[in-house]
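Q: Convert this sequence to structure tokens.
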Amino acid sequence: MGRMKSGSSARGGRRATNARPTTDRKIDFSDIPELSREQLRSARRVGRPSTGKAKQLIAIRISPELLAQLKRIADDEGKPYQSLMHDLLELAVKKRVA
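A:
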């Protein structure tokens, strides 16, 4: 059995092989107004702010049941489940080190 091609997700990997790229010639840009020099000068990068405290992206495997529980708890606390996981891991490490 060969190795699967990596993708950002299991479905994403499959979807990428089925997707056909579209060339710029096939896209109708006529309804998009051109930007002035002033607009281009004042444009700002969109995305996550650079805080100098970037977190590292990792992949872990956990059971679906545990993930569902974490998502429920995070939802009750009104925060993203990945933030909850970070907080819980940080607490566990602090307890272990102390």
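DSSP finds four helices and no strands in the chain.
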